[in-house]
Design brief:
6-stranded antiparallel sheet, 13 helices, 22% strand, binds aspartic acid, binds magnesium ion
Length: 439
């Protein structure tokens, strides 16, 4: 049994969804297909609701485009007849509900996160019933078995409950199943939630892990993981094989091929992941698994992300004091701020933390409040934040025990006149990250 997921562009046009049909029909084993919303629809749903909430009546035009995309697609891919009529009717019902919700928002000019989550769920609900009809698969509603709970004001998966619900739902599984990705419900209130932007990959991984699938396939619009962002490095090429660790390191930022939380659940179960291109099905793609063929390359790829802010916590009173780091990370965690790079020298008088630009102000505020007493007495300084930075990382499991990689990396940067503002390498030696000026 395998789980196979198609992203937004794969189901985004009549032509691409017909490729999906061909790919699915060529598979001769029990199958669970997971789909995203039609490409661009999630953004459009968010945009339409924001316009309505702002009292901008042209939200109706945006909404009409959403209707048009679905109605036209059905006309193009489902032969005229009874099946087409009944599908248009089901889709029409959902679109009517959506229309009423948008109108409600427009009238009361209020858009709560809860309403917003309900609205975006229509993207996958619509795409999945079209895809189910097209591929002759039985439709199952993921809101009934993907369950979240609220933590730090975010919805996170309840793995245990979800695993048992998935197993129960697919106990006697039909040969071909189709489910919407991304969407879920709160385990206590039953309200509609989701797994975060890009979360359909995660839905597929959760199901694959719960059912001990033989493989997880992610079909997207690129040939697989690349050695670097091709928009930045034109000679980047597709990597054929990656270990789970390498994939995790590479997808954390930069390579937007898979949603990062996807890797862990299948890695634990040792289920291989295959990344394939819907628009080039004969391409090799990238395989992610635990035992990859020997290869001598010390590094597999380079990931990079713009929009880094480096916050420095410093002060002479930090030296040798136990608990400063605990306070830094607790304060940030309690406010839902994610830290993706940490660098502290052994002198202990300063710790630098890499956060996304969007989190920078909040992070400074939280840390200034946490250390307000120390700052007042002069034992510590106010936080300093430097924005306009980029984080770059070289990734590869073969770096372990290979001397000279860091030397080569920093030597190359130095010779090119690039100043390294901060750097970090963990003892796992699978990643060396450094922060430089964006330009
Ligand atoms: N439709 C959702 C998004 O655009 C989920 C996904 O595509 O994976 O983020
Ligand atoms: Mg995606």
């Amino acid at each position: 049994m395998k789980v196979i997921k198609f992203g937004g562009t794969s189901v985004g046009s009549a032509n691409s969804i017909l490729s999906v049909k061909r790919i699915v029909e060529a598979i001769n084993e029990p199958l669970i297909v997971v789909v995203s919303a039609l490409g661009g629809i999630t953004d459009k749903l968010i945009n339409t609701s924001k316009m309505a909430a702002a009292g901008d009546s042209s939200y109706e035009n945006e909404f009409r485009e959403i209707v048009y995309r679905h109605v036209e697609m059905i006309k193009e891919v489902i032969p005229a007849g009874e099946a087409q009529v009944s599908l248009q009717r089901r889709v029409g019902e959902l679109l009517n509900e959506l229309k009423d919700i948008f109108q409600g928002i427009y009238l009361i000019k209020d858009l709560s996160p809860k309403t917003s989550d309900t609205i975006v769920s229509y993207g996958e609900r619509l795409s999945s019933i079209i895809a189910a009809q097209l591929t002759g698969a039985e439709w199952f509603d993921s809101r009934r078995f993907i369950k979240t709970e609220k933590k730090h004001s975010k919805h996170v998966l309840d793995t245990e409950l979800t695993t048992s619900l998935v197993r129960e739902t697919f106990k006697d599984m039909p040969r071909r199943v189709l489910v919407p990705g991304f969407i879920s419900t709160d385990k206590i209130t039953g309200e509609v939630t989701n797994l975060g932007r890009g979360g359909s990959d995660y839905t597929a991984a959760i199901i694959a892990a719960a059912l001990d699938a033989d493989a997880l396939e992610i079909w997207t619009d690129v040939d697989g993981f690349m050695t670097a962002d091709p928009k930045v490095i034109s000679t980047a090429y597709t990597i054929n094989e990656l270990s789970y660790v390498e994939a995790m390191e590479l997808c954390n930022f930069g390579a937007k091929v898979v949603y990062p939380p996807t890797i862990y659940p299948v890695c634990v179960k040792n289920i291989p992941i295959l990344i394939k291109n819907t628009f080039n099905p004969s391409g090799k793609g990238t395989v992610i698994k635990s035992d990859i063929a020997e290869d001598q390359k010390p590094i597999k790829g380079i990931s990079s992300i713009n929009g880094t802010t480096l916050i420095t916590v410093s002060g002479l009173s930090m030296v040798g004091v136990i608990g400063v780091n605990r306070r830094i990370f607790s304060a940030l965690a309690n406010n839902g701020i994610s830290v993706f790079l940490v660098s502290q020298a052994s002198s202990e008088n300063s710790t630098s933390i890499g956060v996304r630009d969007a989190d920078a102000d909040a992070a400074c505020e939280v840390l200034n409040a946490e250390f307000s007493k120390e700052i007042e007495t002069g034992a510590m300084y106010r936080m300093t934040a430097e924005s306009g930075l980029a984080t770059v990382a070289i990734v590869g499991e073969n770096m372990k025990h290979t001397p000279g990689i860091a030397g080569k990396l920093f030597g190359t940067l130095g010779r090119s006149g690039i100043n390294v503002i901060a750097c970090a390498q963990g003892a796992s030696e699978t990643n060396i990250s450094f922060v430089v000026d964006s330009k």
